[in-house]
Amino acid sequence: MATSQAPGLGERLIQPVTNISDFIWGGTWNGAEVLPFPPMTIILLGIGLWIMVGLKFYPIVKLGSAFKGLFAGRKSQGAGEISPFAALSTALSGQVGTGNLAGVATAIALGGPGAIFWMWITALFGMALAFAEGSLAIRYRETTSDGVKRGGPMSYIMMGLGPKFTWLAVIFCLGTLFSALVTGNSIQANAVADGLNELFGIEEWLGGLIVAILVFIVIIGGIKSIGNVAEKVVPFMAAAYIVMAAIALILNFGDLPETFSRIFNGAFNPQAASGGFVGAAIILAIRAGVARGLFSNEAGQGSTAIAHAVAQTDDPETQGRMAMLGTFIDTIVICTMTALVILTVRGDFTAAGEPVLHAWQSDRVGFEMTSGAFAAAFPLEIASIPIGTLVASIALILFVFTTLLTWSYYGERAITFLYDRMKGSTRSGERKLHMAWRVLWCVVIWLGAAQPSELVWRLGDISNAAMALPNLLALALLSGVVFKLAKGDRTAGKDHHAATPEEPEEY
Question: Which residues pair with 381 in a beta bridge?
Fold first, then answer.
């Protein structure tokens, strides 16, 4: 008599991990309402609104001049490791990843077309949070004993709020390591292995190994090497993807008004709920839009501040503008193009065996939904692969590859900060730790590539919240400093410095 195989640890963890994720982002447990509001969503949007109002809507008012200053950012105008533009490209390479292709599709699957409206709202408030992070990253950053500039939330917590908030910086770094290994590595490795498998039929473990080797070749050179690759690859790949999406939308222009109608109706229509508590559909749309919005643009999470801290500028306001542009480009431009293609393009799709018009109405999930929509827009085949699938898959592989580069540096900074809290930490000790982390990072890429994705995506929502909460508290406490930085006061806020024999020497 055959015995059924016991579920693996990963499968057993899916339900409890899903409950924690649902509680953090939706206020539910086992599908039932526990809180009348989604906690993480309220915190993220609430602090974003507070900073946006305090900035007198600076990110919206100054958006045009921020774009004008984009190319000036190629020139170095102060101390740092890479140009302001390279810092933006590095931050964008961390932001633009699987969230822009698979994450948008997941948001639509979870919350319907209305989720895209809430993704836009998250991005608008996120621009205020990103400005705060970018400006504080320059205002408060460390200089190592050999003259290297570095920073991020752990630095602006220590130098802006003082040693009594060391616990907050430590929690942020633990959250960063959790988020780096889950969302910055495992989810990305999983997606790139799927893309290579779909395009070339490469086994997932082998695809993971190839990517791990390529990532190691770049990250061995540290942040300057990462910034150099990001500055060359990110603008090209983003522009190419936007052009292809725009062509797909032009070809389906007549259906665009219906798409926008679906997005706005879905954002505010509680009748769409198939049961559960009143307004369930709105909560689902908000939760999906905000959670996936954060996953994609990272505003409020604190990660991009680590990249902006190394920019060669002494002007916090200028780099704050660069940071808010990253959020705008990532979500308002790239995520929106993906969403519009998924919601607009018609094709031969099925749901439960029945024909449907659009990819988002079909049985397809995640990247498969995005790839299917592009394949329907560009069905001509090359080597039996539709051009649309080819474009989407290559975009995914490039987006994910650069995300893996940047998040390795974010994790490196977090692990360095924790090491620096130990008595007797040295710069040479840091360098050895960096090398060990880079090797571990590439091993995790290889391991993560062959893992089932459902558990990892849910863990990603939890790890993003674990990283965002301490950073959002720091942004709220330092908001007065941010408002002054936006007015051009480069020395706003208190300085908490303490000479120490260990690295860094500032605190």
Answer: 386
CA distances from 394 to 89, 188, 244, 352, 377 (A): 19, 14, 12, 29, 16
d(CA 14, CA 10): 6
Quote the tokens at residue 431: 């360098």
Q: What is the rounded distance in angstroms from the CA atom of residue 319 to the CA atom of residue 321?
A: 5
Secondary structure of residue 354 in the 3-state scheme: strand
Return the closest-CA partner of residue 325 out of 87, 82, 164, 2.
87
Kind and range of the H or E element at 373?
A: helix 367-377
Question: What are 162's two structure tokens?
Answer: 């003082």
pLDDT of residue 114: 83
Confidence of residue 153 (pLDDT cuts 50, 70, 90): very high
The model carries a pTM of 0.86
Structure tokens at 124: 């608008």
Q: Is 483 exposed, middle or buried (0-12, 13-18, 19+ CB in 10 A)?
A: middle
**Which range (198-207, 304-313, 477-486) has the least confidence?**
198-207
Encoded tokens for 69? 């200053």
Pull the structure tokens for residue 145. Answer: 């004993």
- Give Cα separations from 279 to 42, 153, 160 (angstroms): 16, 36, 41
Helices (H), 182-327: 187-200, 204-219, 222-251, 256-268, 280-297, 303-308, 316-327
Provide Rg for the chain, Cα atoms: 22
DSSP secondary structure letters along 75-121: S-BSSSSB-HHHHHHHHHHHHSSHIIIIIHHHHHHHH-THHHHHHHH
Decide if 107 contacts 292 (C-beta within 8 A): yes
Amino acid of residue 146: D
Rounded CA separation 25/294 (Å): 11
**Helix or strand run (H / E) with residue 28:** strand 28-29
DSSP state for residue 347 in the 8-state scheme: E
Greatest pairwise CA separation for the chain in angstroms? 77
End-to-end CA distance of the chain: 67
**If we measure between CA atoms, which residue out of 427, 480, 441 comes closest to residue 186?**
441
Mean pLDDT of 398-403: 85
Cα(104)–Cα(107) distance, integer angstroms: 5
Task: Yes or no: say if 449 and 207 are a contact pair by the CB < 8 Å rule.
Answer: yes
Q: Give CA 429 to chain center in angstroms.
A: 30
Contact 316, 309 (CB under 8 A): no
Tokens 């836009």 sit on residue: 120
Tokens of 180: 């780096």
- How large a percentage of the chain has pLDDT more than 90? 23
